[in-house]
Specification:
The complex is a heterodimer of chains A (about 250) and B (about 325). With about 250 residues, chain A is mainly alpha-helical. Chain A is built from twelve helices and no strands. Chain B folds into two domains: about 220 residues, P-loop containing nucleotide triphosphate hydrolases (Rossmann fold, 3-Layer(aba) Sandwich), CATH 3.40.50.300; about 70 residues, 2-Layer Sandwich (Alpha-Beta Plaits). Helices cover about 40% and strands about 25% of the residues of chain B. Chain B is elongated. Classes of the chains: A mainly alpha (about 250), B alpha/beta (about 325).
């Protein structure tokens, strides 16, 4: 019970600066919009993209990317709070340790709803069809993924305390390969077999595929199920690693 | 309120184990105001971090507000307040929000949290700034926000790590008043670290002096000064020769004198009951034809206590630890 209320308290605190300045999440949309505008037409021109419209394939990938990059920033904000001392102040408080992790990760997820809405609105004139129920389920799966990624990012920041380069080095060298090897941007069906093999082991692949199905109004469990499992698995692993790290850090 | 036995903390630096705190025993009773005095790197902050559950002790036991730090960290966290050396308030956040949210972290209702935030903003002269972001404040203002935050939930036991660093004299007075108010109104116990002698002297009822990871003395400031330091007598002479002759005289005739030093033509020594001793000493020197040109008695400070105990002043100790590049 204290977990839920503590998470809410952390989330409220974390969200306040964004509420006062609601345009910040919109500004962080520049990168995905560049991908949509410059990479999208190239992908759309590929004959191998399945489905009714190439945008039905491409847009969900961009939404996953926004979720991934947004929540992977959790640790970066934490690094700042660690150097100023405000993280220490929160650790001394009686807040539930997992609630600190989850509250911070959720704060990075909340703007995702706004961002996804903007992306969808921008793409509607280009022949993208919105399936609201699918989109809502899709965003819920991304929220679960985000808790996991956020917690992992938090743990990484704790481990690389005082060594900012380590955080960025690990973060960047993991994020981009994960992104490409999930077929988020470009289809992997024509890629070499080693790429396909890695993609099969990458949990993100299943999430991306589930999102594509959901954003096209396809709710078949054989595609959505593995996506939910992959997101839940990431959340469990992320929280476990995060809580262990937070405990070890106060050792 | 705080009881530790053999509390110690090791850390690893370049594959070597360094002991920052070497097994200390502390007893603080409810309602006390205790200062932890020592140079930088003495182990003050490390001890504080162990007592506030931020750092797990390597050895020894510690009970804080009736709970074991090893097994009941969460119960302790709910009952203590901690104002660290850093900036507890988030730079992107607004002052009032941080105070209110901080109160809610400790289980206050939103209404109560807002009420107390308003009161503390008033007490610390921050009411007109309530909507400003912490990052836009001056260092002194930030410090006040942190102190206000630490008092939001009116903890039974408040830890302050170097509280007056960055505060101007007026706000030091405000801080002292606020601490005094909390103690009389709520019976709050306060445990603070400082390397400012004046602060320890003025604020604390009891001082623990720590050096090299060990508590080397403890007691009321007045007691420590009386028993450990003695009154400082300072005599001026025509030249160094006369001063040295006087030092010999002091050594032979003043059994309570200690730490007698000669610097050029000036002799300083520590004695018991200095005001009564000085006239006798002057008459004695007169009788052996040592001409004393100037004479003064000064009551000892805590720095003199530290000097008597360690052979160096707090300021010297601070500088030497900085030169070694070590930190607490």
């Amino acid at each position: 019970m204290s977990f839920v209320s503590d998470t809410a308290k952390v989330f409220v605190r974390e969200s306040r600066p964004t509420l006062y300045d609601p345009f910040t999440p919109v500004f962080s949309l520049v990168q995905p919009l560049v991908f949509l505008g410059l990479l999208g037409p190239l992908v759309a021109a590929m004959p191998t993209i399945p489905g009714e419209s190439p945008w039905q394939w491409f847009v969900p990938g961009i939404v996953v990317m926004v979720a991934l990059f947004g929540t992977a920033m959790t640790g970066s904000n934490l690094q700042y709070e660690m150097t100023t001392g405000s993280h220490e102040r929160i650790l001394v408080s009686p807040l539930n340790r997992s609630a600190i992790l989850v509250g911070k990760a959720l704060k990075e997820i909340a703007p995702l709803v706004v961002q996804a809405a903007v992306i969808v609105l921008v793409m509607l004139p280009f022949g993208f069809t919105l399936y609201p129920i699918g989109a809502i389920i899709g965003l819920a799966i991304l929220a679960i993924l985000g808790v996991g990624i956020g917690a992992l990012s938090y743990a990484l920041a704790l481990v690389s305390k005082g060594k900012e380069w380590l955080f960025w080095g690990v973060q960047q060298s993991l994020l981009f390969p994960l992104l490409i090897l999930s077929g988020m941007m470009l289809p992997l069906e024509q890629g070499p077999s080693w790429m396909q093999a890695i993609a099969k082991a990458n949990p993100l692949t299943y999430i991306v595929e589930a999102e594509r199905a959901l954003f096209s109004g396809d709710y078949s469990f054989t595609v959505v199920g593995p996506g939910i499992a992959a997101a839940a698995g990431t959340a469990v692993v992320g929280l476990a690693v995060g809580i262990l790290t937070i405990r070890r850090d106060t050792d | 309120m705080i009881h530790t036995r053999g509390l110690a903390r090791d850390y690893r630096e370049k594959k070597e184990i360094v002991t920052a705190v070497k097994g200390i025993d502390i007893d603080v009773e409810p309602g006390e105001l205790v200062a932890f005095l020592g140079p930088n790197g003495a182990g003050k902050s490390t001890t504080l971090r162990m007592l506030t559950t931020l750092l797990r002790p390597t050895r020894g036991t510690a009970t804080v507000v009736g709970h074991d730090v090893h097994t009941h960290a969460r119960e302790i966290r709910g009952k203590i307040g901690y104002i660290g050396q850093g900036n507890g308030a988030g730079h992107n956040h607004r002052i009032r929000d941080e105070l209110v949210d901080h109160g809610r972290f400790y289980g206050l209702s939103t209404k109560e949290s807002k009420r107390r935030a308003g009161q503390l903003l008033e007490n610390f002269g921050l009411a007109s700034q309530a909507k400003r972001a912490i990052g836009s404040l001056s260092g002194g203002q930030r410090r006040r926000v942190d102190i206000a935050m630490g008092m939001m939930h009116e903890p039974e036991l408040l830890f302050l790590d170097e509280p007056s660093t960055g505060l101007d004299p007026q706000n030091r007075v405000n801080l002292a008043e606020e601490i005094a108010r909390l103690r009389t109104e709520l019976g709050m116990t306060v445990f603070l670290t400082t390397h400012y002698l004046e602060e320890a002297d003025q604020l604390a009822e009891r001082v623990l002096i720590i050096d090299g990871g060990e508590v080397i003395a403890e007691g009321k400031p007045a007691e420590l000064k009386a028993t450990l330091a003695g009154d400082r007598i300072r005599l001026g002479f025509a030249d160094e020769l006369a001063a040295k002759a006087a030092a010999v005289f002091v050594g032979e005739h003043l059994p309570t004198a200690r730490e007698t030093t000669v610097d050029n033509n000036v002799l300083t020594t520590a004695v018991d009951n200095g005001e009564a001793t000085l006239p006798k000493l002057l008459r004695g020197m007169d009788s052996v034809d040592i001409e004393v040109r100037t004479a003064s008695v000064r009551l000892p400070t805590l720095d003199d206590v530290f000097l008597s105990l360690t052979g160096r002043t707090l300021r010297d100790a601070d500088q030497s630890t900085q030169a070694e590049g070590s930190q607490a």
